[in-house]
Amino acid sequence: MHTPEFIEPLTQLGAKACHIGRMRRAWLQGGVLDQGTRHQASEHFLPLAVREAVPELSARLERVARVVEQHPAEDSAIRLLVELADQQQVESVLLPRGGICISSQVGCAVGCQFCMTGTSGLIRQLSSLEMVAQVALGRRIQPVKKVVFMGMGEPAHNLENVLEAIDILGTDGGIGHRNLVFSTVGDPRVFQRLPEQTVRPALALSLHTTRNDLREQLVPRAPRITPEELVEQAEIYAQLIDYPVQYQWTLLEGINDSAEEMEAVAALLKGKKAVLNLIPYNRMEGDIYQRPPAEQTQQWMRFLHQKGVLTKIRQSAGQEIDGGCGQLRARQADKALQQRAEKLIARQA
Question: Quick check: 303 and 272 in contact, CB under 8 A?
Fold first, then answer.
């Protein structure tokens, strides 16, 4: 990592760039720091002072992030509750077929009306080290070949750290550049900065509607850019990297699932380098939204295909364990609050 937490202690112990690079790659793969090389054991490769410092450095990295809960789902996803050094918690999801969805913030400032994370507001940013640590933890459980920045937080609001994490994962992390997915509600800085990067990730854009007025309601603190302008900017990037943009559309019954909306999105995306992901809403207890019937979602997918728009239905991973983004963390926070209340009552009794 290009971070003082990793590099400075090793440099002070006399480690050279080859040693630091090897240890960095080993950690990012979920392995031990002193595993050596293909041709040399660690005692012949790493300087003695570095080898002696490995336990302390390993312990320091363990404190950056640790898995406190694992929730396997019927769809083979595994939802992870990850605790950071300051006891804040975020969520990661190990996806079927070798993917992982990671968080970039504790909480989120965008305030999407259909997202549990948005209800807590922004608590703090994650460092690039905390982001790549989620991948390292995931690789201890299963192989990871794709990383999606689509967990808690809006990556564009933590842009420098996210771009550094993408650079790390696309080099020493061994992740193919198009298997790194930057998800955003459409911040203009994304369209400016991504083309400038050495590692240019795939882009996922949260669209959800073609109506500007409705989008302002559903995503209240997103930049005031019309859906047409967002697609125009995203198409420029798609043509640059020669890879389609993934447009995210959370289906909310009676809100954005009408025939008029489907006609409008077909017209908006036809001829573009685009994949439309229809995501049936993952309902939260007590909220006002519902998911449309499954047959209707299938009908819209077939309709959009006929209109020339590549469309996929994406189910939220781990629905049977209330695994929507932010729900696992919220449930854990409620549990901790209840435990504190019970202790207080017990002391007063």
Answer: no
Q: Give the active site residue among 160, 228, 325, 342.
A: 325
What mean pLDDT is predicted for residues 283-301?
Answer: 87
What is the token pair recorded at 221? 């603190």
Give residue 160's identity as a one-letter amino acid code.
Answer: E
Angle at 128 (CA atoms; ends 323, 331), nearest 5 degrees: 25
- The answer to whether residue 91 is catalytic is yes
pLDDT over 50 at 280, yes or no: yes
Residue 170 has pLDDT above 70, yes or no: yes
Is 325 annotated in the active site?
yes
Distance of alpha carbon 77 from alpha carbon 71, whole angstroms = 8
- Cα–Cα distance measured from residue 289 to residue 318, given in angstroms and rounded to the nearest whole number: 19
How far apart are alpha carbons 9 and 14 in whole angstroms? 9
Residue 268, pLDDT above cutoff 70: yes
pLDDT value of position 80: 97
Alpha carbon of residue 113 to chain centroid: 19
Tokens representing 327 are 């729900």
DSSP state of 323: -
Residue 175 burial (C-beta neighbours within 10 Å; 0-12, 13-18, 19+): buried
Q: Which residue of the set 91, 130, 154, 261 is catalytic?
A: 91
Element (H, E) at 302: helix 294-306
Look at 229 and 117; give whichever has higher pLDDT. 229
**Token digits of residue 204:** 């996922």
Decide: residue 183, CB within 10 A, 0-12 exposed, 13-18 middle, 19+ buried: buried
Average pLDDT over residues 145-152: 97
Range 200-233 burial, b when 16+ CB lie within 10 A, else e: bbbbbbbbbbbbeebbeebbebbbebebeebbeb
Per-residue pLDDT reduced to its tens digit, 41-60:
666 678 889 989 999 999 99
Distance CA 212, CA 185 (A): 13
